[in-house]
Amino acid sequence: MVIDKYEPVIGMEIHAELRTASKMFCGCAVVDTTVAAPNTAICPVCTGLPGAMPTVNEHAVTQAMLVGLALNCEINAFTSFARKNYFYPDLPKGYQISQFDHPLATDGWIEVATEASDPLRVGVRRAHLEEDTAKSFHVPSERAGVGAYTLIDYNRSGVPLLEIVSEPDMHSAADAYAYATKIREILRYLEVNSGDMEKGVLRFEANVSVRLRGARTLSTRTEIKNLNSFRALTRAITYEITRQMDAMESGETIAQQTLGWDEARDATFVQRSKEQAQDYRYFPEPDLPPLTIDRGWVAEVRATVPELPAAKFARFLEVYGLPENDARILVAERALADYFEHAAEAYAKDPADLSKWMVGELAYLMNRDGLTIEQVPVTPEALAKLVALVSDGTLNQNSAKEVLETMVETGKPPGTIVQERGLVQISDEDRLSQVVDEVLLENPEQVKSYLAGKTSLLQWFMGQVMRKTRGRAQPQMVLALLRERLTARQK
Ligand code: ADP
Ligand code: MG
Ligand code: ZN
């Protein structure tokens, strides 16, 4: 089979805007470019006026170091900036200040979970600082009247950008997806990037090649630019792998090309080939001295690296005894994990009761109403209270779901809702016996069928009891009583 004959090889470049207050080389504010009025956060430096001088944003360097350390990189003592020259209207200086031969961080790795039993270790070749470009808005000629034109918003120009370059250690679209997800998760944990793909603060590029399985050398690759969603990332890589395998099967050679991804056509297209490759004429940035990173500074930053998802996952299994699946979901977001830990503090019984409600009903309601854990008006303490009402037998599962739904909708505490609705579970044996007897008396036909062997009617009787008690009966007790009464009639 063709699939077995070839091995895809993938390396990724991820661009992440850093969440600093001001830009990389000037004092302009970093604003949300999808909200702010165009060209309101600009100055001579970030619009490339002649003679304007850049200065390095210390906070951006700290954040980049934080990422480098979280990705197990070496933070280099000597690092410097370089000019990457090319012309484009969104690049007012005619060059981008980036890092070339002396990047801030090198030689890291992370482990990502894939379908394989062992985690995949992906090397991080380098992480370097640079500046974002401005944003172009192309207005097509129909709307422009006279002819097409382009508007440029320089608010994004000069926003600190971290480029994270992986080794070619991935071998499927699923690997690349897992890696990109992990990087996003880490950036969010470090609070250096919101991970908001729709806002363009995180962008992917994938380098793809295909070689004969078992081959030691790398084959010619293509580079797919501007993948702005996880969906685009996965589909573009899948498409490109198939395209290259098909080409190799029919004896064609793969050309080194830069590709774009056409979302509408669901296909890659050629932007430029190697012959037209750009020569960026990198040279040291003359307006910025090299940056020497003091070891003491590295140690200071290292001390602020928070507990990362992998470590938190292990701790959640060990300390709280959570099922792996619950732990995995909770640690994916720091806010979710923190919420769980606060709830666990307020809950005296098995913390797995809480995680079950969090990844189940609460997640369902948040998803239904489009709420994040920060927005949902249910405090961790209130959730713990609700789950305690279930485990002490005050509420049955269905009533508890109803209460939680109301909590999400109104923010009221569970106790109040239970009072208002009269939802306290009926677990008084005498009362339930009475209802069970009533149901059996009122339905002689069903009782007959049951006794003749149609035991599936047990659930139906259960439903009748629930109806009479408005869903408040303690289910296990009802089942036991039904069985007892019906068995008695059998004799
Ligand atoms: P450039 O800077 O020109 O984009 P690099 O050699 O720095 O090129 O590589 C960029 C990315 O491409 C890295 O993530 C690397 O892992 C990946 N890469 C390099 N060669 C291959 C290949 N043959 N197949 C797949 N990915 C590759
Ligand atoms: Mg590249
Ligand atoms: Zn500026």
Radius of gyration (Å) = 30 Å
Strand residue content: 15-25%
Tally of structural domains: 3
Indicate the overall shape: elongated
User: How many DSSP helices?
Assistant: 17
Number of strands: 16
List keywords for this structure.
9-stranded mixed beta sheet, 491 residues, binds zinc ion, 41% helix, binds adenosine-5'-diphosphate, alpha+beta, Arc Repressor Mutant, subunit A
Give structural notes.
The strands form 4 sheets. The chain has a 9-stranded mixed sheet. The chain has a 3-stranded antiparallel sheet with strand order 5-4-15, with no helix packed on it. Strands 3-16 form a two-stranded antiparallel sheet. It starts with a helix and ends with a helix. With 491 residues, the chain is of the alpha+beta class. Helix 8 (324-331) packs across helix 10 (351-369). The mean pLDDT is 94. It has 3 domains: 2-301, no CATH class; 309-421, no CATH class; 429-489, Orthogonal Bundle (Arc Repressor Mutant, subunit A), CATH 1.10.10. The longest helix is centred in the middle third of the chain and has 20 residues, at 230-249. A hairpin with a 4-residue loop joins strand 13 (257-262) and strand 14. It contains 17 helices and 16 strands. Bound molecules: adenosine-5'-diphosphate (ADP), magnesium ion (MG) and zinc ion (ZN).
